[in-house]
Design brief:
It is a single chain. 38% of the residues lie in helices and 15% in strands. It has helices spanning 21-28, 48-56, 70-83, 101-110, 128-136, 151-154, 175-188, 221-224, 238-241, 255-268, 274-284, 288-310, 332-341, 368-378; strands at residues 35-37, 94-98, 118-121, 139-142, 157-163, 191-195, 231-236, 248-253, 314-316, 323-327, 344-348, 359-363. The strands form two sheets. A seven-stranded mixed β-sheet has the order 2-8-7-6-5-3-4, sandwiched between helices. The N and C termini lie far apart (70 Å).
Length: 379
């Protein structure tokens, strides 16, 4: 008797970073080893105050709460008021998540999107927005303004992703731009989810510590008006607090949406561990370590940018975040290869959509020693 063998698993594109293997190998041949500026993973120590909070909460025999402890949700509300200009956030409208990437990937599904629905994401964007649409069976469409869509597509939009400051471009939407897309989405009954994890890392006109203004949130009253209906702000502590290894993030906004998300995540067991919740609570109450880390990134940016320009790269956008979005006026992979020959690894712009052709993303997440090595090699 012959037994039919069924295939299992999801049909997803290959993880794009596997294509970087030959360039990593080439860069590793350089004397002194590779300077890997392709991925935005923090390299500086997790602040001691946060490590201490994690250790103090390590005796955690019981199950944590999906919705987050009241103390954590109050800390998130306090942070929004102090750092983002969002006063009086309802603690019920806040929830910790296991990093922000899992929420980006699962939000369309958790919102109940289905085949035929449309998810709008930025023209140049982090690939996980498309993957999230795929998980729900929905269709991802690239647009930076709903007016770019034809009437038939616009009528199917259920979720609009905003990413400001953007990855990889570092672009920032001002309050008026955010308000426009919120008004557009509300007119058609769509949810707007704003991925804001680089908000503390503004440069130039967005560098609050150097006389600039704060990057606005989707929940800012200048954007949202008097209601957070249909709005979700997503934030991660990975970048501002060097907590990528903790998977520490949260979502806040529409209380009705949040209640449903909390319920769904209870069923699925999508819970942030209690020690991590305590570490988040302490991290959100301490601004000093965030400013110290930003100073490190500012210094690295100020050294690396002129070196890249002397190599022939032109900076675009890059108003905030941990990346420099550059072009040499040639094919992306040609630039990647030329930099690999100098022992420097960068992110290919083609990984971020068709509009990324010709660009590379250079991360600031190298140690001072590695950044200085890159500057020397580019000279």
């Amino acid at each position: 008797m012959t037994t039919a063998v069924r295939s299992f698993g999801l049909s997803l594109p290959d993880y794009p970073w596997e294509a970087m293997a030959p360039y990593l190998a080439k860069a590793a041949e350089h004397p002194g080893g590779a300077v890997n500026l392709s991925i935005g993973t923090p390299v500086d120590p997790t602040p001691a105050i946060i490590q201490d909070a994690l250790k103090a909460a390590a005796d955690a025999p019981g199950y944590p709460t999906v919705h987050g402890t009241p103390a954590l949700r109050e800390a998130i509300g306090g942070w929004f008021a102090r750092r983002r200009g969002v006063e009086g956030l309802d603690p019920r409208a806040v929830m910790p998540t296991v990093g922000s990437k899992e929420l980006v990937a699962w939000l369309p599904f958790l919102l109940g999107l289905k085949p035929g629905d449309v998810v709008v994401r930025p023209t140049v964007a982090y690939p996980t927005y498309d993957i999230g649409a795929t998980f729900a069976g929905a269709t991802a469409v690239a647009a930076d303004d709903l007016d770019e869509l034809d009437a038939a597509t616009r009528a199917k939009v259920r979720l609009v992703w905003v990413n400001s400051p953007g990855n990889p471009t570092g672009s920032v939407r001002d309050a008026a731009s955010l308000k426009k897309i919120v008004d557009q989405a509300r007119d058609i009954g769509a949810v707007v989810a704003s991925d804001e994890c680089y908000a503390e890392l503004g440069w130039g006109e967005w560098d609050l510590q150097r006389g600039g203004q704060a990057v606005p949130s989707i929940l800012d009253p200048r954007v949202a008006g008097t209601s957070h209906d249909g709005l979700l702000a997503v934030y991660s502590l990975s970048k501002q607090s060097n907590l990528a290894g903790y998977r520490a993030a949260f979502v806040a906004g529409d209380a009705a949406l949040m209640a449903n998300l909390v319920n769904s995540r209870k069923h699925a067991g999508m819970i942030v561990p209690y020690p991590v919740q305590e570490a988040m609570r302490v991290a959100l109450g301490d601004d000093a370590h965030v400013l110290e880390q930003k100073d490190l990134y500012r210094g690295r940016r100020e050294r690396l940018l002129p070196a890249l320009e002397s190599f022939g790269l032109t900076l675009h956008e890059s108003a905030a975040g941990l990346y420099l979005w550059c072009t040499a006026g040639e094919a992306t992979w040609d630039t990647v290869a030329r930099l690999a020959e100098r022992g420097i690894v960068v992110g290919p712009g083609v990984f971020y959509g068709d509009a990324g052709h010709g660009y590379v993303r250079v991360a600031l997440t190298g140690t001072d020693e590695r950044i200085d090595a890159a500057v020397s090699r580019l000279a």
